[in-house]
């Protein structure tokens, strides 16, 4: 099997091909209408729903995030990790108690700094997806080793930029649209202001770029203003008015006119967002409980305020992007990750409580993602680039207090034959047993994407659907 070109699965490509057929006189008049019907049928957005991607840049160390806790597995984990292993005695407060225990006495705990998220898990508001990572097709260890065209690997494994892109777009760096943006493509007709379908509080991201949907960028404090259009210039209201007129008037030159259209859209959207957020100030409940000196918490507080303002903004479906960096811990893993895990846990815990207070906890789902997991083996003071990883889903619609996917054994043997080691590809790098495509499809289906539209959101979804690799992992109600 060759790589599937994700661009071939986008609506833009479909419309382009339809337009080409129409130009040649061979297309039926209904071709374009079928595309419109598909978009209209994808959602029945009478309620509100939001997806919030929490991206952990640098490659989060999975083994010190969701930690083997039963005595047998923890002993194996400690023997392999050595000086970067977290002692079992430190994990009692973050031990995870699933409603249905894992087989063979398997137990996990979260990092000791993640008491908030452990409590959310144990009270049913969070779940763990085990061993998820990019896959084009399901792979065994032998198929991975063969590296054949019939069993393709994801492109450029273990590269930061490329694996960030594969997580977000299903393709290596340079791809221009992501699955969050394609979900936004389907949702945007249900929002009064379609620009607000996809919102990033963490700068520009391909994850939120669709064929039509745009990544609208805001800061942690709110909408980004065009200063010269929002205040007097050189103390003159007349100069400001002249600039506004110049910036928004219709122009004869195509590029100038398009630039002015973008400026007008940004100016109008900023005003709408600012006015809506003024009704939900950051220093009012339920937004005051977010921890200070925590950049991720500040981003999520802004997301909570935008969700609170959903009626003022006419939003029914939204995809948000926030991020936390500092996970490329080739050294100082114990100290660096402890800081990051506390920030992640306290920020997500406060965010979930805000959605509870706003009455939308079952309408908002946050989920983590990262470049890749890291090696189970230590390089001395840290861990190196890996592949599969464990991730968290948080929200009232999450089927919480549960693990999804397959729990990998603790092993770093390089045997190609021993079935015990089919999970690893060297140094304790996990061969994913769940693909990002499955993870994303489960979230997209809850959000409202029709099964027939999943291929336009996730180009490799047709390669999954077996008993061992279901399209829906079951973690969403």
Automatic annotation (TrEMBL):
Species name:
Hydrogenophaga intermedia
Tell me the protein's name: Tat pathway signal protein
Pfam families attached to this UniProt entry: DUF1501
Matches recorded under InterPro entries: DUF1501 (IPR010869), TAT_signal (IPR006311)
């Amino acid at each position: 099997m060759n790589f599937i070109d994700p661009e071939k699965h986008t609506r833009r490509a479909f419309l382009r091909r339809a337009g080409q057929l129409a130009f040649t006189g061979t297309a039926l008049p209904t071709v374009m209408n079928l595309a419109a019907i598909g978009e209209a049928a994808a959602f029945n957005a009478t309620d509100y729903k939001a997806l919030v991607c929490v991206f952990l840049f640098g490659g989060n160390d999975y083994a010190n995030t969701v930690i083997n806790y039963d005595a047998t597995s923890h002993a194996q984990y400690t023997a392999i990790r050595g000086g970067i292993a977290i002692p079992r005695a430190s994990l009692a407060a973050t031990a995870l108690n699933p409603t249905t225990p894992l087989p063979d006495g398997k137990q996990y705990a979260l990092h000791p700094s993640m008491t908030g998220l452990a409590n959310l898990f144990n009270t049913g508001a969070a779940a763990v997806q085990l061993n998820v990572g990019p896959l084009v097709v399901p792979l065994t260890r032998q198929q991975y080793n063969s590296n054949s065209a019939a069993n393709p690997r994801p492109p450029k494994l273990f590269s930061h930029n490329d694996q960030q892109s594969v997580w977000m777009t299903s393709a290596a760096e340079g791809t221009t649209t992501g699955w969050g943006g394609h979900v936004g493509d389907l949702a945007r007709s249900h929002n009064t202001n379609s620009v607000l379908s996809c919102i990033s509080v963490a700068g520009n991201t391909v994850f939120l770029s669709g064929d039509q949907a745009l990544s609208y960028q805001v800061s942690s404090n709110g909408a980004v203003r065009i200063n010269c259009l929002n205040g007097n210039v050189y103390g003159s209201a007349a100069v400001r008015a002249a600039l506004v007129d110049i910036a928004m008037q219709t122009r004869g030159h195509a590029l100038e006119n398009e630039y002015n259209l973008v400026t007008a859209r940004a100016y109008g959207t900023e005003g709408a967002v600012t006015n809506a957020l003024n009704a939900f100030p950051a220093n009012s409940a339920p937004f005051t409980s977010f921890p200070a000196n925590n950049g991720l918490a500040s981003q999520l507080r802004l997301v909570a305020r935008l969700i609170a303002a959903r009626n003022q903004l006419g939003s029914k479906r939204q995809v948000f992007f926030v991020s936390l960096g500092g996970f490329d811990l080739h050294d100082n893993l114990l100290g660096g990750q402890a800081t990051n895990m506390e920030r992640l846990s306290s920020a997500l815990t406060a965010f979930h409580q805000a959605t509870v207070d706003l009455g939308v906890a079952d309408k908002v789902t946050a989920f983590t993602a990262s470049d890749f997991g890291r090696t189970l083996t230590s390089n001395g003071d840290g861990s190196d680039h890996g592949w599969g990883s464990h991730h968290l889903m948080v929200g009232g619609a999450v089927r919480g207090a549960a693990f999804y996917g397959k729990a990998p054994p603790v092993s770093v043997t390089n045997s190609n034959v021993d079935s015990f080691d089919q999970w690893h590809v060297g140094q304790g790098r996990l061969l994913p047993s769940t693909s990002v495509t499955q993870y994303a499809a489960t979230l997209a289906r809850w959000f409202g994407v029709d099964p027939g539209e999943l291929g336009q959101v996730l180009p490799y979804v047709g390669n999954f659907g077996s008993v061992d690799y279901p399209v829906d992992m079951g973690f969403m109600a």
